[in-house]
Amino acid sequence: MTKKIIVIGGGIAGLTSGIYGLKAGYEVSIYEKNNIVGGECTGWDRKGYHIDNCIHWMMGTTKGTDLYDIWKTVGAVGDHVEIIRNNNMYTSTLNNQSITLWDDIEKTERELIELSKEDEEEIKKLIKNVKLSMNVEIPADKAMEFKGPLELIKMMKTQKNTLKIFKEYENEDTQDLMNKFKHPLIKCMLSDFCPKESGALSFPMAYGNFVGGDGGVPRGGSRAMALRMENKFKELGGQIYTNSSVKKIIIEGNLAKGIVLDNEKEIYGDYIIPSCDTDYTFNALLDKPYMDPILRNMYEREDDYLIYGMFQVAYAIDSKEDLLGGEIILDCSDIKIAPWMGDRMTIKTYAYEPSFAPEGKQILQVLLPLDVKAYDYWMSLYKNKEEYNNKKEELANILLKKIEASYEGYKGRMEILDSWTPVTYKRYCNAYKGYNQAFIMSKRADKKAYPSAYVKNLDNVILCGQWINPPGGVCGAAITGKFAIQRILKKEKKDINI
Ligand SMILES: Cc1cc2nc3c(=O)[nH]c(=O)nc-3n(C[C@H](O)[C@H](O)[C@H](O)COP(=O)(O)OP(=O)(O)OC[C@H]3O[C@@H](n4cnc5c(N)ncnc54)[C@H](O)[C@@H]3O)c2cc1C
What we know:
Elements: E1 4-8, H1 12-23, E2 27-31, E3 43-46, E4 49-52, H2 66-73, E5 83-84, E6 88-94, E7 97-102, H3 105-115, H4 120-132, H5 149-158, H6 160-168, H7 174-179, H8 184-191, H9 202-211, E8 217-218, H10 221-235, E9 239-241, E10 246-252, E11 255-261, E12 266-268, E13 271-274, H11 278-285, H12 293-300, E14 305-306, E15 309-317, E16 327-331, E17 344-349, E18 362-370, H13 373-382, H14 385-406, E19 414-420, H15 422-429, E20 440-441, E21 454-455, E22 458-462, H16 474-491
Parallel strand pairs: 1-2, 1-13, 2-9, 6-16
Antiparallel strand pairs: 3-4, 5-8, 6-7, 10-11, 11-12, 14-20, 15-18, 15-19, 16-17, 17-18, 21-22
Helix pairs in contact: 1-10, 1-16, 3-4, 4-9
């Protein structure tokens, strides 16, 4: 008889595990609490505009890598999906100066040196490391525990540039990297994409990935990608139950028998894959003691394993003129309304997606990073919806004025479409402290200890999702989805090469 897998959550990880599960010959059902799949990788419509919630940068959009193969298998990319790439990754601005990270790395190098001659030596070193990272690949063929000695040696050989970069930046974080430079704008540029506590290699690796030709955005954006994956899952015979929040995993001895939905319905299966946030899995779906000590340690050491939040706004712009030409990061320390508010905000237009706005108009979105303390602030405000909405509107208006002051051409042409906070991700995805990614591993974090996908004393529960692959992201999530099925196949002594 065909064995049955129950997947909890229809985000990128859950959908990927579902598709690989079907390909491996299992019967798979996905239970998703929301009325649409995608989880954090989604988008929504307001007043004729489409708000894209997720993909600014997606690894694995270039052919010939293991990651591309995963995206293709799950229908996220393929010959039918155009990959959009801007000629720059982003532009950082400060005190009326700006610097752009072009896809042409020589141009970026020249402009950085022109900006700060006194940083020339460090700029050259940085650019050398970016170049080393250009063809770095994320291993995504099989879970590490299944790699034999020869495969590990082969991996080490193909990853020799990664190892060099690891060595170069050993025990350094982005703040340490920033400290090597004198020019304040270059310091900002380094931390505008990677939080200061993230490893120093984060910036060169991310920019290297972009310069190497990866890091595109699939046409249609985040929601369209998740829906393509849902279609793939259904085409292969999978069942998706939306509006189906799972309340508990039913345990009998050292096996999970099935799940109970919020409406008390019980569903039984042979394997359970919780793909949702691990905080929710171990504090609601399972009892706390099941949590892997490594993961518990991560939650407990919040200064070493960091969590951020985000305040976001989407504005309708009554003009189709794109004054930004990509993602721009502005200094916003002058409009700080609380200590938990970040000093830098990203603004972005979607000129590359004309269908996201009515004819002659466009959409502009703002991402404002927040300290983790903002979570408690917004959660407590949320108890009174009116106060919560008023505060959101107040902040959205402050940011609007800041943008108008920076881009005169948009003055009087901006209207708030929607704004959202960490509360949104908590409510929508059960996300821990409303964070949309997984832990940022600081230099004090134990680099060798990663959360396990297995649950001790529960033989047929295998986890997937971004939280077991920090710092997360859609590609990290998808990889864990594929690996979950390999782990099940291994338990059944079957070929794991799927
Ligand atoms: C603003 C923003 C920008 C981002 N930008 C990028 C980017 O540019 N590049 C990138 O790689 N990543 C980006 N990310 C991160 C990316 O979206 C996530 O890393 C990824 O989507 C996580 O996927 P997941 O499947 O692990 O988790 P989730 O998306 O959280 O999926 C979990 C699913 O489980 C469901 N669920 C939870 N509890 C239950 C329950 N009890 N019963 C049933 N279902 C349940 C949730 O509703 C959700 O659908 C961004 C995220 C945001 C929000």
